[in-house]
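User: Please predict structures.

Assistant: First:
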Amino acid sequence: MEISVVIPVLNEEDNIANLHREIVETCNKHDYTFEIIIVDDSSTDQSVEIIKKLAPVKLIQFRKQFGQTAALDAGIKAAKHPYIVTMDGDGQNDPADIPKLINKLIAEDLDIVSGWRKNRKDSMSKHFFSRTANILRKFIINDGIQDSGCSLKVYKSECFEDINLYGEMHRFIPALLKINGFKLGEVEVNHRPRTAGVTKYKWSRSIKGIIDMIAVWFWKKYAVRPLHLMGTIGLFLFFLSFISGIMTLKEYFNGQDLSDTLWLLLTLFIFLIGLLIFITGLIMDILIKTYFENTGRRYYIIKKETENKL
């Protein structure tokens, strides 16, 4: 078993050495061939100095803070082994759970297995925001995962061949992979209380996460057919403008001075907005097709090709 462990870190000087030791112990115990990739998101404490003294380790340093998603993306792109494990650098994820996730992934032939922090050891506020986000996520994108926000996950490296992560997208990696046809699983994991350092979680991240959630929803539904969405909205507005136009004509034939009513302006306004949205959909459709043709990328993913010869 060959695994790459990817850990984004920001100001975790009191946690990272112990976490590294636990990962090494777990990997050696199960005879894994492994690498540990730590991505430092421009820490201002002694985290980098401590990491440089650890072994084995591959350290990637950002010039400034780009966020957890960027750190995960950089670490995943640097990974060399066929299985990628991601986890937080605060020590709340338990490295002893790594074999449990890997065993489930292999036994059930899955592409990703996510940890489920069923008994979370977080503050009430963080727990509240996380639960609220999970409810919204199930309603909007429904990736089938109980706890998508858990950083402890194992992936087949092929999951990331055509995926780049932006914004706060790390929370929605399972949804992105599910859109592309990868098989997901989940297993309960141990969640430990933070014993040192300060949480990086802020309510503003929840807002950004909701915005990214909407982007994932759009990508899931309309990535290769944006005209279906924009065109539907445009046609609906055309219909409303038609109804408004009928009301305008009714007012006119009833002797109403159209300069004294808003029906005519409302009809023109709704019609023009619908036209703009419809045209926007056409432009987006052209751009999507141009993107796939110019980049040589496909909007579908082939799992396997088999050929039988006589």
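Second:
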Amino acid sequence: MSIAQTIRVHLPYLRRFARTLTGAQQSGDAYVAMLLESLVSTPSDFPTDIPARMALYHQFLRVWNSVRLDANDGDDGANSLVVAQRRINSISSLPRQAFLLVAVEGFTSAETAGILEIDKSEVEKLLEIAGQEIAHQVATNVLIIEDELLIAMDLETIVASLGHTVQEVATTKGEALAAVKRRKPGLILADVKLADGSSGLEAAKEIVAEGEVPIIFITAYPEKVLTGERPEPTFLISKPFQRDTVMAIISQALFFDTKAHPRPAAA
């Protein structure tokens, strides 16, 4: 199979990645075109010892990191994309690449490490930097709905490491609803099955009925969430989870939240 046939199916996603990375479709496509020209002239440079999609992104980032173009077509697009692009543009280059590869393109940490030619442990550090830089703009209060103490403590540590504030830890549906009445959270991390028999999913449904808020479900029972009913499981993490996955998804949820407001400048 030729390189063209191998990468064709992945090109629409690469163009999306390039647009988000560069900030504009025109400049993103210019980098993709440079990559394709390179592959035509020296097809032997395309790695064959890793999956084709990994190889494609790896080669693209080699072009991105070696050449700088100034083209910018001033994309307008939907409001959510405009807000998201402004936030991603503020993230340092390498953390931005790692964040987009994991949170948006869906690569694992190991795959991202291979694409970027770094250690897997370095990916976690880059994701933390990206999360902190996003939080610098839209730091928020986070409600955790989780009845397992050790897991709740782990989530608190992750949230704090990214620069956000843990509002409360609720262990039941009733506690979660009471917490929201006291203060509306900017983000919710919710388990689905709670120890007293109540449901984090049901709590989330009642919360979003009063007003939209991004929710990340963290559960050992993903089938309980994937029902097609509201609230839609836009962000879903299966237990046991990896720290870097949670960091990336928290940042992604806030990255695409058009209602998140910039942190006020210090006096």
